[in-house]
Amino acid sequence: MNLIFDIAWTHVRARLRQTGVAVAGVATGVGFSIMMAALMQGSQDDFIRQLVNAMAHITVSDERRAPPPQPAERFYDAAEIHNLTPEARRRGIKNPLATMAALEPWLPGGIAPTVRVQAIIRYASHDVATAIVAIDPRREPLVSDLPKQMRGATLAALYRATNAIVIGDRLSEKIGARIGANITLQTSEGARLNAQVVGFFHTGVRQIDESTAYVLVKTGQILARQTGLINELRIRLRDPMAAREIATRVERETGYKSVSWEEAHEDLLSTFIIRNIIMYTVVGAILLVASFGTYNIISTITHEKARDIAIMKSLGLSEFTVRSIFVVEASIIGVAGAVAGFVLGYLLCLGLGSIEIKSPFLDSNHLPLAYSYLHYLLAGFVALASSVIAGYQPARKAARLHPVEIIRGAT
């Protein structure tokens, strides 16, 4: 084995220019594939992160996923009842505090009660439909990033004024309201009250920032005209990817409709499947082109060593030993190129990440990039595999020929 490695290392050092070109070809393919994978994966992760953080991971509403079965349907399989007018029932989740107490022991995350009301905000001749979310500021940090998204105040400001309200920064721009402004809230059921703006928030999701406002739970109950109303429980998990399974269990135990963030955005998330196919296709194409370049360079080097093969065979080296020499030589070039490509890819990612982008539609001034070891492993594996194949195939063909034919130039 030492002889094989010594001869391969001698070949690699003998022509540094060719070796450098081969290593540079491998490094270029690896580096740019890492950069593209980091860019596309980073943009997707950033979008999902904003999507997940903009809302609760699981929302338990006071609705039922299916109407309750009728007595006849319970006892007779042939019974089928349609077009029944559902009975009028009191809105809200029954015994919300008891429900929360039952979920908290096993729930891997936080839970908070909410009152959600649709209302019209009126200010300075502007009427804007808004989702009013009534919260408990003490529990809110358990289920959302709202405390970190506040602008100009903290959530504690909701306690400092009568009927205090926090609105999205884009909503404030739309209606022209500033901190301290008195606005009017009116619901379709006739509830009407004056509220004072005590702060703004910014989530980065335009739809939320221009159509959502937060008030205290008691203020939401006044707007809903129902004392003690809690019509929604919001849950945030330590692992957002477990939301679908946890939501199923919550719905089974409570009987109320529980919607995970994945279910709420199924249509949007399904597009990521196509996007991932595109991403891996682009990265694969870069690696494939780089592999062909690597194959051409290394196979050319192998063909140029044909006389060396004849000399080695005439000295008694077996076909296996000759093939192994060139496979080791190709592996050295592949490993060196992959390592150089790792450095190049990392530097390219740093360069892209340092580019400042100024746009009113972006919350971040820099491109989102994902630094994942999987990108490096995939690119390195393809580079090494293509290098080994490039060294093996020509050496296998040349090692089968008779040394005399090679020296005479029969090949």
From TrEMBL:
It comes from the Bacteria. It comes from Undibacter mobilis. One of its GO terms (biological process) is lipoprotein localization to outer membrane. This is ABC transporter permease. The keyword Transmembrane applies. Signal peptide: none annotated. Residues 282-403 form the ABC3 transporter permease C-terminal domain. Residues 19-252 form the MacB-like periplasmic core domain. Belongs to the ABC-4 integral membrane protein family. LolC/E subfamily. It is found in: Cell membrane. Keywords: Cell membrane, Membrane, Transmembrane, Transmembrane helix. The keyword Metal-binding does not apply. It is a multi-pass membrane protein. The chain crosses the membrane at residues 21-40, 277-299, 320-353, 373-392.
